[in-house]
Design brief:
- It is globular and about 85 Å long.
- The chain starts with a helix and ends in a 12-residue tail after the last helix.
- Helix content is about 60%, strand content about 0%.
- The protein has helices spanning about 1-20, 50-55, 65-85, 90-95, 120-140, 140-175, 185-215, 235-270, 270-280, 285-290, 305-315, 325-330, 360-375, 375-385, 390-395, 410-435, 440-470, 495-520, 525-545, 555-580, 585-590, and strands at about 60, 220-225, 230-235.
- It is mostly helical.
- The protein is built from 21 helices and 3 strands.
- It comes from Pterulicium gracile.
- Its main location: membrane.
- GO terms for molecular function: dipeptide transmembrane transporter activity.
């Protein structure tokens, strides 16, 4: 089969060469610097447009990341510090009781090896409320995207959203101050605080990701000669991918520092400090945003295109609905589904609202295609969200060696800070040199299966916790006669494989999802498509509520096992649903350049 494939590829390249008068032989020299932009000491950018033959045969590299993008990444880093720095202590704040004699919730304030806590509402309540918070934070981006696209633009929407989040953080501090913490009434300001933070997060997250990628202006591939003399193609799609990888690394720098600092503040000082420090750090966001206001590339609001996009979809779907849902699905996935909505294909008088051209229909097609890819993401996020509730609770039932039980969550961002540069500098360039096309959709599929492996590891750990805990299947509530918690002798570090596997799955699925949402969305739909991607986390949080019943002893092995099966089934279903468009990356990207093949982009 491999030989046949090589013959087919050779035939395709030969055919391209015959029909391409501008094709030229490929320089066999390969720069030792890989795709690092430092190796691309520009002689001068060649603005000649690469041909099909060039794209199929020449090495592609990414461009340098503009400094404006780093400034926006700093804004995101401060916001994520505040978000994750607060979120990481939610589980203990809600689940655990106030330690004896404590007025701040600190477990180790006076040298007593007690567990930090405040509200004493149990694991199910902590899982439910933290899941609600995730749901709320990722459903509000739909509103944030609408406001940005139709009214304020991305920059102003981000500014206003920051103010909402700051007020929410201040209200959280009120819930944790001595005199309020530990009382039943403390739940009221806590819930008000997370609702306000969710509103701010929605407007922020829907727009910060498109804004950072917009700082890179080139939309079409172009030639460049490296210092070693090799002529390569600078691919904007690879550059956007690189921007999002480092953008995600900044996210995790903020998350890592925030989480480590806050869990120790919680354990040794109290929850009021765990909620105050993120609020102070968050003030960096409006400051950097203001200082760089004249440097950023900004897109003005062009009006919401949701209504017109849905109208195009409805027009294209005429006559394709059927009482049999399977038949409807097949009709909607025919290669010419969208062609009926193109103005050039309309016979007779066109509808009054049809003021666009065929290219706009292709862009809408691409936006819907991106959203259809995201339909499977809720199953992936089920594995990721275990970090901030059930895995944190699991750590409390092991021997933490005096560490806060929620400090292990930092293995995830720490692993990402190592693995992201490794992927950018070594793994992905190495795969491209080897001729392996590790496309966006293949990365996402691999991310599902890596997430499933993380859950298998968590299930195995939970099994041995039950086996070695003095109370066996009541590990979370096991106490001695003096009301001191009894834990498994297993070290908390056995959770490490789960966190590292989740980090790998994030690189493959989460970062690639950000990239896909941006590169496949029309320019005036980027906030909308990005919010659709973020909305999958909200759907996942809603799904997770169905598993809250499993989020307690003695059912936690079933909880993690269920997540593993769901992620594996989701990854398999995802690949079978997108495999037909996996080889059309260049075609879809050319629509962003304002040009497309007149034939359907769904053609095989």
């Amino acid at each position: 089969m491999a030989a046949a494939s090589e013959v087919d590829n050779a035939a395709v390249l030969s055919d391209l060469a015959k029909h391409d008068s501008r094709a030229f032989p490929v320089d066999e020299k390969v720069s030792s610097e890989g795709t690092r932009t430092q190796a691309l000491d520009e002689v001068e950018d060649d603005q000649e447009t690469p041909t099909e033959y060039n794209l199929a045969t020449m090495r592609r590299v990414s461009d340098a990341i503009p400094w404006n993008a780093y400034l926006i990444a700093i804004v995101e880093m401060a916001e994520r510090f505040s978000y994750y720095g607060s979120l990481v202590v939610f589980t203990n704040f809600i689940q655990q009781p106030l330690p004896p004699g404590s007025r701040t919730g600190a477990g180790n304030a006076h040298g007593a090896a007690a567990q930090s806590g405040a509200l004493d509402m149990g694991q199910r309540a902590s899982t439910g409320l933290s899941t609600f918070f995730t749901f709320w934070c990722y459903i509000t981006p739909l509103f944030g995207a609408y406001i940005a696209d139709s009214k304020w633009g991305r920059f102003k929407t981000i500014k206003v959203s920051i103010y909402f989040s700051l007020v929410g953080h201040i209200v959280l501090i009120v819930a944790a101050i001595p005199g309020v913490i530990g009382r039943k009434s403390a739940i009221a300001p806590f819930i008000v605080g997370i609702i306000l933070i969710g509103i701010g997060t929605g407007g922020f997250k829907a727009n910060i990701s498109p804004l950072v990628a917009e700082q890179y202006r080139p939309a079409k591939p172009f030639f460049r000669t490296t210092k070693s003399g090799e002529r390569v193609i600078v691919d904007p799609a690879l550059t956007i991918s690189r921007i999002y990888m480092y953008f995600y690394m900044f996210i995790n720098i903020g998350a890592l520092v925030g989480q480590i600092t806050m869990v120790y503040a919680e354990k040794y000082i109290g929850f009021w400090l765990s909620f105050t420090l993120p609020t102070i750090i968050y003030l960096i966001s409006p400051l950097v945003l203001y200082l760089g206001r004249n440097r950023y590339t900004r897109s003005p609001p062009n009006g919401s295109v949701l209504a017109s996009s849905l109208r195009i979809f409805r027009y294209a779907a005429r006559g394709k609905w059927h009482v049999n849902p399977v038949r409807t699905w097949k009709n909607f996935n025919t290669p010419d589904f969208w062609d009926g909505a193109k103005p050039s294909r309309v016979k007779g008088e066109k509808p009054i609202w049809m003021t666009f051209d065929d290219l706009w229909v292709e862009e809408v097609r691409r936006g819907f295609k991106a959203c259809s890819v995201f339909c499977w993401y809720p199953l992936f996020w089920l594995t990721y969200t275990q970090i901030y509730n059930n895995l944190t609770s699991q750590a409390a039932t092991t021997n933490t060696h005096g560490l806060p039980n929620d400090v292990l969550t930092n293995i995830d961002p720490l692993a990402l800070m190592v693995l992201i540069p490794l992927s950018d500098r070594v793994i992905y360039p190495g795969l491209r040199r080897a001729g392996i096309k590790f496309t966006a959709l293949k990365k996402i599929t691999a991310g599902f299966f890596t997430g499933a492996m993380a859950m298998i590891a968590a299930a195995v750990v939970q099994h041995y916790i039950y086996k070695t805990n003095p109370c066996h299947y009541s590990a979370a509530t096991c106490k001695d006669d003096q009301d001191h918690a009894l834990t498994s002798p297993l070290t908390v570090w056995i959770q490490t494989p789960s966190y590292i596997l989740i980090a790998i799955s994030e690189i493959l699925a989460s970062i690639t999802g950000l990239e896909y949402a941006y590169t496949k969305a029309p320019k005036n739909m980027r906030s909308l498509v990005m919010s659709a991607f973020l909305f999958t986390s909200a759907v996942s949080a809603a799904f997770a509520q169905a598993f809250v019943a499993l989020a307690a002893d003695p059912l936690l092995v079933w909880n993690y096992g269920s997540m593993a099966v769901i992620a594996a089934v989701g990854g398999t279903a995802f690949w079978f649903s997108v495999r037909n468009i996996d080889g059309q990356e260049d075609k879809l990207n050319r629509i962003a350049e304002g040009r497309y093949d007149a034939r359907s982009t769904d053609e095989k």
